[in-house]
Structure formats: C-alpha cells, structure tokens
Amino acid sequence: TESTVCRAVHRVENVLMASGLFRLPGKKRLLQSFSRPEVTVMDVTETPIERPKRRQKWFYSGKKKRHTLKTQVIVEQSTGLIICTFFGQGRQHDFALFKASGIQFHPLTESLQDSGYQGINQYHHNSHTPRKKQKKGELSSLEKEYNRELAKERIGIEHVNRRLQIFKIFSERYRNRRRRYGLRCNLIAAIYNYELSLPA
User: Fold this and answer.
1) How far apart (Å, rounded) are the C-alpha atoms in residues 44 and 121?
2) Is the pLDDT of residue 36 over 70?
3) Which helix (H) or strand (E) holds 13?
4) Model confidence over 11-33: pLDDT tens digits?
5) For 2-11, how does the pLDDT look when each residue is reduced to its tens digit (9 = 90+)?
6) Quick one: DSSP state of residue 116?
7) What is the DSSP secondary structure assignment for residue 15, as one 8-state letter?
8) What is the pTM of this model?
9) Is the Cβ–Cβ distance between 72 and 96 less than 8 Å?
10) How many C-beta neighbours within 10 Å does residue 26 have?
11) Distance from first CA to last CA of the chain, Å, rounded?
12) What is the DSSP string of 33-100?
C-alpha cells in the first residue's frame, strides 16, 4: 500500500540523515575565505506538482504554464559540487527566490547567473548576467560575444541538473506532501555530491 511505501521512504531518509555522509556544504561555505569557491553558478529548476487545493496562484508558474515548486541550486564551477539549495513556489521570480534565500557570496567569489537574476549586482558586485538589449535597440557584437562566453561558462550547471533529473522527484510530477520536498531534494543533491567524491 501507499502507506507502506511512505514508511519505507521515511526510514531510508532517516538512515541517510543519521549517517552524516549526505549533507550539503551549506551557504556558510560561500563566505569562508579559506574554502570559498572561486566561481559559482546559480540556476533554478522547476518540478511539476499536483494542482493545490488552496493558494493555487502561489504555485502557478507562468514560465511552465503549470503548478510547480522551484529549487535554486548553487554549484561550484570547477568541481560541479552542489553547495546549497533553496526552495520556493512556482509563481516566485528567480531573483525574488534568491533574495528570500538570504544567500551571500564572498566578495572575491565570481557568481554566474542567467537573465532571471537581473539586478543581482546590487547584492553581489562580482556577479555576471547576460546583457539585455534595450527597447528598440540591439546588442553590440561585443555584448553578443559576452553572452556566448557566459553561456559556455554556465553550461556545467546544466549537466548537474540533468544528472539530478535522473531522480523522478525532479523530473516528474511530485505527488507527495510538499513539506518534505526540500528534505528529499537536499538528500538527492547530497547523494550526487557523494558519488562525485568517489574515485573514478
């Protein structure tokens, strides 16, 4: 039965947490001068959910045209290690999700984002987002080249997202209680990090 499956899942989750091996470095790692990443990449993924019975507008994503939960992922560029995550409702804009997360970067850490994070320079001066063309204007050749190079530098997080989506919790409709969604995503991210640390 479903209740039996849920109990089994809870037992596995408890064992993983108790082991101490499946924890993310956490957002404090971003500020530690001795172990801070030189370059981070930040992105948001969306997971479809069942239509909520209450507050449907909070979860409706205009981008995906469906109800979703959002997961903000910050990855160390050089290693692909997931440093931390944060979660929100589908209606929440990527930049608003970042502000709600309370993430702070070390001043010397470079942070790479997509266009959903326009305005992040007010919070972290060493951030890079794509150049956007002005109304009735066009991007210069230098700006286009900058955007291409930034996209190349950010491609690593797309590989991370693809590996996370091997787990159906990320790639298919999430049908369980939303209050445990963050816990499960963090455990999956920590399993990914653990596999990354194993010798090839």
Assistant:
1) 18
2) yes
3) helix 2-19
4) 888 888 888 788 999 999 999 88
5) 577 778 878 8
6) G
7) H
8) 0.90
9) no
10) 11
11) 39
12) TTT--SEEEEEEEEEEBPPPSS-HHHHEETTTTEEEEEEEEEEETTT--EEEEEEEETTS-HHHHHHH
- Beta strand ranges found along 77-179 (DSSP E): 82-89, 110-112, 127-128
Q: What six digits make up the tokens of 88?
A: 């929100």
3-state secondary structure of 188: helix
Check if the beta carbon of residue 29 is closer than 8 Å to that of residue 35.
yes
* Rounded-to-integer distance, Cα 97 and Cα 86, Å: 8
C-alpha–C-alpha distance, residues 115 and 145, integer Å: 15
For 50-109, what is each residue's pLDDT tens digit? Answer: 998 888 999 999 888 999 999 999 999 999 999 999 999 999 999 999 999 999 999 999
Residues across the chain: 200
DSSP state of 175: -
Distance CA 99, CA 48 (A): 23
Nearest to 128 by CA among 44, 45, 39, 30: 39
Report how far residue 125's alpha carbon sits from residue 96's, in angstroms, rounded to the nearest whole number: 17
**Which residues face 172 on adjacent strands?**
none
